[in-house]
Design goal:
The protein has 394 residues and is an alpha/beta fold. The protein has 13 helices and 13 strands.
Length: 394
């Protein structure tokens, strides 16, 4: 057991954090505020649920194995939508459906890397990416972010070696929420292309981007699929987290390799979830726009409430998507602070230490707040509780 790949990586952070709730009671007038996980907690739109029920009752195929790379109609719809959002040309042959976006990342790495290869990821990183690289025998090379939580393309050029297989970007970022501008993403793309490595761009939270402009211009490149591997999730947009529907856009040659991984791990994506995602893209654009507007209101509420925390020594390091990334003023590490917050403030969030290598102390000053499941009033309550924390300052 001690020599296994799973033993070499850390426990799932969200599950680890939930253990802090053991033995803690929360009075009725101060219930737990859980901002530890970035996932919708409400069920899908009622009409989508009806469409899913109809598929279960009337379409025998949803109960059988489907194509490994996903339903052709969903692949085509995703390709067409991507082309509309970003410009450029995307075909169904460049699209595949996966059992969630985490599986899309796992499949991408499996198609790129051998034992001892390297992948560059900005820190703070999305911990499941790090966990999968560990379990794949791939070396994670951390790329530090600047004070604005943006990685520097110049810095990445110094980290590329003959074993480097990919650079990974997440935008809007998890955990910081920061939205990378097109010129930054393009700079990383150009470096990856020049060095003959892949650029993996995870846009799980794309539908909640603060701008209505295209998030980037990479799909306008004639040969984008030689370099870009694009990851997406239907879970956040359509509240389908329990149905595990993600996606990858890449070259047909890359997807032929990915197909080997997907067939071995899951055989095919969840059929009912795929039908739901297809129905959602065809019918719920107006509803999704309303979901985005609500997230942007909550994002604005974070900004509006920050002065009360700033007066207590806190600072806002990043904001966007589902996340606010905070620097706390206390003398203790965030790894110690986060369990204390459960007991003292009734707030469950993740410490920055969960998003950094063990030898990087920056995360000790940071906390991730996943605010998407709090309404505007709930965010005000969260900030009130944080501002009343009475602990020794640095």
């Amino acid at each position: 057991m001690t020599h296994s790949r799973t033993a070499a990586t850390f426990p799932p952070p969200v599950m680890e954090a939930r253990r802090w709730l053991d033995g803690v009671t929360f009075p009725a007038d101060r219930p737990l505020i859980n901002v530890s996980q970035a996932a919708p907690v409400e069920a899908p739109h009622p009409d989508m649920r009806q469409a899913m029920a109809d598929a279960v009752l009337n379409d025998d195929d949803v109960h059988l194995y489907g194509p490994v790379l996903g339903l052709p109609a969903l692949r085509d719809e995703l390709a067409a939508r991507t082309a509309r959002i970003y410009g450029g040309t995307v075909s169904g042959a460049q699209a595949s459906i996966t059992s969630g976006c985490n599986q899309a990342f796992a499949a991408a790495i499996a198609s790129l890397c051998s034992e001892g290869d390297e992948v560059i990821i900005p820190v703070p990183w999305y911990f499941n990416h790090k966990m999968w690289l560990d379990m794949s025998g791939v070396k994670t090379v951390p790329l530090k972010c600047e004070s604005d939580m943006m990685p520097d393309p110049w810095d990445v050029t110094k980290l590329i070696t003959p074993r480097t297989r990919a650079i990974v970007l997440v935008t809007p970022n998890n955990p910081t929420g920061v939205e990378y501008p097109d010129d930054l993403i393009t700079a990383f793309y150009d470096i990856a292309k020049a060095r003959g490595i892949a650029l993996i761009v995870d846009e799980t939270y794309r539908d909640f981007h603060s701008s209505t402009d295209a998030p980037h211009s990479l799909f306008k490149r004639d040969d984008w699929d030689d370099t870009l591997i694009h990851l997406y999730s239907f879970s956040k947009a359509y509240r389908l987290t329990g149905h595990r529907v993600g996606a990858m856009l890449a070259s047909p040659a890359r997807l032929a390799e990915v197909e080997k991984f997907l067939d071995t791990v899951a055989i095919c994506p969840n059929q009912v979830g795929q039908h739901a995602a297809l129905w959602g893209m065809q019918n719920l654009d107006q509803w999704l726009a309303g979901e985005r507007d609500e997230i942007l209101k909550r994002r604005a509420a974070i900004t509006d409430n920050m002065p009360s925390l700033k007066a207590k020594g806190w600072s806002l390091m990043g904001l966007g998507g589902y996340f606010a990334y905070l620097q706390h003023p206390f003398a203790m590490s965030s790894a110690e602070l986060a369990p204390v917050m459960v007991r003292e403030a009734g707030v469950l969030c993740l410490p920055g230490t969960m998003f950094y290598p063990e030898d990087n102390s920056a995360g000790a000053k940071q906390l991730r707040i996943a605010f998407a499941n709090l309404d505007v009033d709930g965010i005000a309550t969260l900030f009130e509780r944080l501002s009343t924390l009475d602990l020794p300052h640095r």
